[in-house]
Amino acid sequence: MKFTKTQYKKLEKLIPIAGKPAKISNYEFMCAILYIIKNSWHYQKNMGIGTQFM
Predict the structure, then answer these.
(1) What is the pLDDT of residues 24-52, one digit of tens each?
(2) Residue 49: left if φ>0, alpha if ψ -120 to 50, beta else—which one?
(3) Under DSSP, is residue 41 helix (H, G, I), strand (E, B) or coil?
(4) How far apart are CA 36 and CA 42, in angstroms?
């Protein structure tokens, strides 16, 4: 799954502004979250976890 800058621009206005200066950009943060979600889904699928809900 690729998360493009164009897709990010559509969501950018929904992301809150940080109170402190962030070490990573919101775009990098969103990519990391999607990476974790994708990999956990593949892990669950390969391990047979959660198949009763599919």
Answers:
(1) 888 888 888 888 887 776 666 666 655 55
(2) beta
(3) helix
(4) 10
3-state class percentages of the chain: helix first, strand second, coil last, to nearest 5? 65, 0, 35
First vs last C-alpha separation in the chain: 20
The rounded distance, in Å, linking the Cα atoms of 45 and 13 is 33
CA pair distance 43, 1, nearest whole angstrom: 15
Q: pTM of this prediction?
A: 0.58
State both tokens at 21.
């200066």
